[in-house]
Amino acid sequence: MTGECFNCGETGYNKADCTNPKVERSFTGTCRTCGAEGHRSSGCADAVCKKCSGSGHTAAACTEKYDVYPKDLPSTDDADKAWENLLAADATGDVDDFFQAFWIYCKVAPELTLVQLEECFRETDFKYYLIAKEQTVPSPSIPMSTSRATPTRSFKSPSRRLPNLVVPSWLRVGPRLPKRTSNVYTMLASPGTT
């Protein structure tokens, strides 16, 4: 037999036949995460948590909420500027711009609930509104609610012609409906109870 034992490093036998204690050896390959040599991906300092997108810890040890925001969002810390961008996107009528501005505003002001946002959209006479659609989904820990059995959807007209839009399934925005708000607020307020 050629080569060395993966357990102790001696030649002449394989790991299954080894009776010696395991010897720690240095890692000589490259890291899958950063591409540097000398360490494994599990011990990489540049690794990002898959739950909250933070660094310095793993998803198993993470105590933060899930990062549900799209990865390509521009960063801003000013809620007033984010609201102005939301108003401008609503004025243009472009769904993609409105959706991006909506996500930015939600990220800057995570304390707002879906009900508060919908009431504000209606008071401001937005072209878009939030629709709650009953759907069975797992209950992740997300900033606006702890459970999401009644996600919101985005539609361009009151009839739902495009069921598979390219946005997260639990939050969609759509144009104005007539002022029928009887069930909208209750469904947005209690996503997860049916």
Can you tell me about this structure?
- The protein is mainly alpha-helical and 194 residues long.
- It has two domains: 1-47, no CATH class; 79-189, no CATH class.
- The protein has four helices and three strands.
- Helix 1 packs antiparallel against helix 2.
- Residues 140-157 have a biased composition (Polar residues).
Task: Tell me the number of structural domains.
Answer: 2
Give start-end ranges of low-pLDDT stretches. Answer: 144-148, 158-167
Helix amount? 10-25%
How many distinct beta strands? 3
Main β-sheet, spatial strand arrangement: 2-1-3
What fraction of the residues are assigned to beta strands by DSSP?
5-15%
Number of distinct helices: 4
Shape: elongated
Mean pLDDT: 74
Secondary-structure-derived class:
mainly alpha
Instruction: Report, as a whole number of angstroms, the end-to-end distance.
Output: 65 Å
Report on the biggest sheet. 3 strands, antiparallel
Protein name: CCHC-type domain-containing protein
GO molecular function, one term: nucleic acid binding
InterPro entries: Znf_CCHC, Znf_CCHC_sf
Organism: Aureobasidium vineae
